[in-house]
Specification:
Elements: E1 5-10, H1 16-30, E2 33-42, H2 54-80, E3 86-95, H3 99-107, E4 112-116, H4 127-137, E5 142-145, E6 157-161, H5 166-174, H6 176-181, E7 184-190, H7 204-211, E8 217-222, H8 229-239, E9 244-248, H9 254-260, H10 263-269, E10 275-278
Parallel strand pairs: 1-2, 1-4, 2-3, 4-5, 6-7, 6-9, 7-8, 9-10
Antiparallel strand pairs: 5-10
Length: 279
Amino acid sequence: MAYNTLFSVLTDEDLTDDVIAHATALAETQDAHLDVLCLGVDRSQTGYYYAGASAVVLQETITRAHEEAESVQKQVRKRLDGTAIRWATESGVSQLADLGRHVAARARFSDLVVLPIPYGEGRGAELEPVAEATLFDGRTPALFVPAGCAPTPRPNRIMIGWNESLEALAAVRAAMPMLQEADVVHVVIIDPPTHGPNRSDPGGLLSQFLARHGVKVEIDVLSKTLPRVCDVLKRHAGDMDADMMVMGAYGHSRFREAIFGGATRDMLEGAEIPVFMAH
């Protein structure tokens, strides 16, 4: 398996440089084609204006969205011109409520989607539905890029957040090309279950599976010494100087994570290294 087709969705000029830098470096390493969708987002909510104003406001927001899409596409093309990779860009406009359909329709025909971190300060409301559409509707793994993080197309030290879930296993399978090229892959388990078939050998079956694919594996069993699992993972990533983290996305429902929080949201909000996720 290889990443022959990379895809990215950009809606904000301020987030373009970091994402394109990572996507370009990965495309060069994998000899892949990069497709970039530059979207202007209409965030208006038709029906919430006084009588007669909806058409005027709608036209204004659509015009603004077109201008934003063209501006993002211009910046993307400027960054990609002169590179040695194969690439293509497309621009368009979508209402916020219909954003996921457009993203998923394109994401499902790619091997990996490179996206900006969707949560945190300065992140638009459209980034979350883009991420969710990629993972849920597109069924495509995503590499989330933090701001200011240098590209690491061939990460040498990779950390897997392992909790025996189907989501985590899907992420491991999808990340296999990178895992095979890494110098070392740490399978990190926090407070393994005291009951069950894997209690005496936490992570053993996963490490065996990875080793048979030529991955150099180490198992790190940690205690939950901080309030949140994501805090333990982030601290350990810093301790081992990890280049990338691999983990499952949205083990709970999106509604529950939106209301009560969860490891996916918590991890992405403060990530300092690229996070590879799949659902």
